[in-house]
């Protein structure tokens, strides 16, 4: 995929389409040559299916969704010609918006709904922690801010992420 690119001073915007709603990736050039990276929010559900061209939509499965979010961001880094691996960047912060379970219905099965919330929170913590241990073991850990919301636009996902990172040219 080829991004449309708009450069304005030390900021470069990478986006898709003729009338975008937002940029997929915004890059801020630092005085020392490093690049500060701002990744658009997306999910491991429909977002990952569309960005990565997957046949399957992952639903409410943090163990699979979280690696897909980072795979999307890694693809954007390659497509923008910035670097080849997500492990090349140091994440400064990750913002995660946790969704409420899609099922069971809390009015019909409140105990099942509470159990599903607990399952998702535990799976999210496990998957998020495992991602950095397995894919970026040399990097430090970003700070994280999680907000639990009723829903996000992606009806299949359990979380939506956005992040800020730094590509250090002289790490």
Helix content: 25-40%
User: Structural class from helices and strands?
Assistant: alpha+beta
Biggest sheet statistics: 7 strands, mixed
Number of strands: 7
Low-confidence stretches: none
| Strand percentage | 25-35%
Mean pLDDT: 90
Q: Give helix and strand order, one letter per element, not per position.
A: EEEEHHEHEE
Shape type: globular
| Strand line-up of the largest beta sheet | 1-2-3-4-7-5-6
Distance between the termini: 29 Å
Number of helices: 3
Radius of gyration, in Å, reads 17 Å
Topology:
Elements: E1 4-8, E2 11-15, E3 25-29, E4 35-43, H1 46-52, H2 62-79, E5 90-98, H3 110-135, E6 143-148, E7 159-167
Parallel strand pairs: 5-6
Antiparallel strand pairs: 1-2, 2-3, 3-4, 4-7, 5-7
Helix pairs in contact: 1-2, 2-3
Write out key terms for the chains shown.
alpha+beta, 7 strands, 30% helix, 171 residues, seven-stranded mixed β-sheet, 28% strand
Protein architecture, described:
The chain is globular. The protein has helices spanning 46-52, 62-79, 110-135, and strands at residues 4-8, 11-15, 25-29, 35-43, 90-98, 143-148, 159-167. Strands 1-2-3-4-7-5-6 form a 7-stranded mixed beta sheet. The protein has 171 residues and is α+β, with helices and mostly antiparallel strands. The protein contains 3 helices and 7 strands. Helix 1 (46-52) runs parallel beside helix 2 and helix 2 packs across helix 3. Strand 5, helix 3 and strand 6 form a beta-alpha-beta unit. The mean pLDDT is 90.
